[in-house]
Design goal:
By secondary structure, this protein is mainly α. Helices cover 68% and strands 1% of the residues. The protein has a two-stranded antiparallel ribbon. Strand 1 and strand 2 (125-127) form a beta hairpin.
């Protein structure tokens, strides 16, 4: 018996090139982590890292598949629910930081790592709420902007200010809690992703000129104080550790034993590798955090310029597929989510690779889909599942060149 017409599902055509890009990056991640074995700290098991990264990759694929099955219909409301759950977890981490600092004990499953209280530590691995909060904020901001643009009566500076206030209401609480942890790296990722969405949502151009002018002014003042009034700049920063990152970046050669050691060793690793590298699991130059922040330097040391360009090529291929879905989508809500995703990924890619080759100061920013990390990997798969649903439901996309 034939099915009723109402029950016949429209065939979905996903962007399989995007799926291939993600799978290739996952395989490259495992190869890079394996290659970093000799550089790991003595208390870190390389085999365990491989097993955990593989496990999170499989779980991520399952989560993406579930999102593909459920669709994006109730995405905005689900993101709000996820937001409040994650906000509660961030609040618990804040309490854990207070008990550790003032009472001298740790709450269950909460242990500071390098002075930061950002993770819940479980026997099977760690969980970082801020990684998932950035995804929730991208989805929620897309919904807020979409509703605002549909309901506004006219386009003016006043309507733009109303939009900014709506977004800040969602952003303020998690931003403060993440900053206190402290995890300025994730906070920067969130701010840049949301800024990209706001810039592309139809606000007046004057805001963009104002933001660009303020950024140039801040950079000009910073470099002026750095080279002419360093003591004043140090007083403004308050925390000398944060300023040390800029010292190590701008004066690496004279600080290669101290503040510039990480950058100096990364440059040695890449510069000595030549075209083809030193080979798998080479130990020519020791690197700190080889499985996370400096995974690009590890891959470049072992596989040379060819390996480095391969990772850059994978990143560009992933970004291009996301951009193609963006320009061919016909729903503003979907476009804004992809815009935020692109902003997030592009910033992390540029920052991570840029800091390894000395173009940018060193920060705790990992390379998406390549660096080790279960929470970050799973958060990316959530957003990839959402993007794949977007590619499948839009008629414009289905007319494109998708496998």
């Amino acid at each position: 018996m034939e099915k009723p017409l109402a029950r016949v599902k429209v065939p979905k055509r996903y962007d399989y090139l995007l799926i291939i890009a993600v799978v290739l990056m996952g395989m490259t991640s495992l190869l890079a982590i394996y290659s970093a074995f000799p550089l790991l700290n003595a208390d870190v098991s390389g085999t365990r890292l491989i097993i955990q990264q593989s496990m999170w990759f499989v779980i991520g694929c399952v989560v993406a598949a579930i999102i593909l099955y459920l669709g994006n219909d109730n995405l905005f409301e689900l993101a709000k629910l996820g937001y409040y759950i994650l906000l509660g977890m961030l609040a618990v981490l804040f309490v854990g930081k207070l008990t550790n600092a003032y009472l001298g004990f740790n709450l269950p499953f909460i242990t500071p790592v390098n002075g930061a209280v950002s993770w819940f530590q479980f026997p099977f691995g760690s969980f970082q709420p801020s990684e998932f909060m950035k995804v929730m904020l991208i989805i929620i901001t897309a919904g807020v902007i979409d509703e605002h643009n549909q309901n506004k009566e006219f386009h003016s500076f006043q309507s733009d200010i109303q939009l900014f206030i709506k977004i800040i209401k969602w952003l303020a609480a998690p931003a403060v809690l993440i900053f206190i942890q402290p995890d300025t790296g994730i906070l920067l990722v969130i701010l840049i992703a949301l800024a990209m969405m706001i810039a592309c949502c139809g606000i007046r151009r004057e805001w963009l000129f104002l933001a660009g002018g303020l950024l140039v002014a801040v950079l000009a003042v910073f470099f002026y104080l750095y080279y002419n009034h360093f003591s004043l700049l140090s007083d403004l920063f308050g925390d000398p550790y944060k300023l040390r990152r800029f010292v190590g970046w701008l004066d690496t050669e004279n600080n290669k034993i101290g503040a510039g050691q990480q950058l100096y060793t990364a440059l040695l690793a890449l510069g000595s590798a030549g075209i083809t590298g030193h080979g798998m699991q080479s130990e020519v130059v020791s690197l700190l955090e080889p499985q996370t922040d400096f995974i690009f330097a590890v891959f470049g040391q072992d596989f040379g310029l060819i390996g480095a360009l391969f990772i850059v090529g994978l990143c560009l291929f992933l970004d291009y597929r996301l951009y193609r879905i963006l320009i061919m989508s016909d729903q503003q809500f979907d476009k804004l989510i992809i815009c935020g995703t692109l902003g997030m990924l592009l910033y992390q890619q540029i920052q991570n690779i840029g800091m390894v080759i000395g173009l940018l100061p060193i920060t705790g920013i990992t390379l998406p889909f390549i660096s080790y990390g279960g929470s970050s990997l799973l958060s990316y798969f959530i957003i990839i599942g959402v993007v794949l649903n977007t590619s499948a439901k839009n008629t414009n996309v289905r007319k494109g060149f998708f496998l």
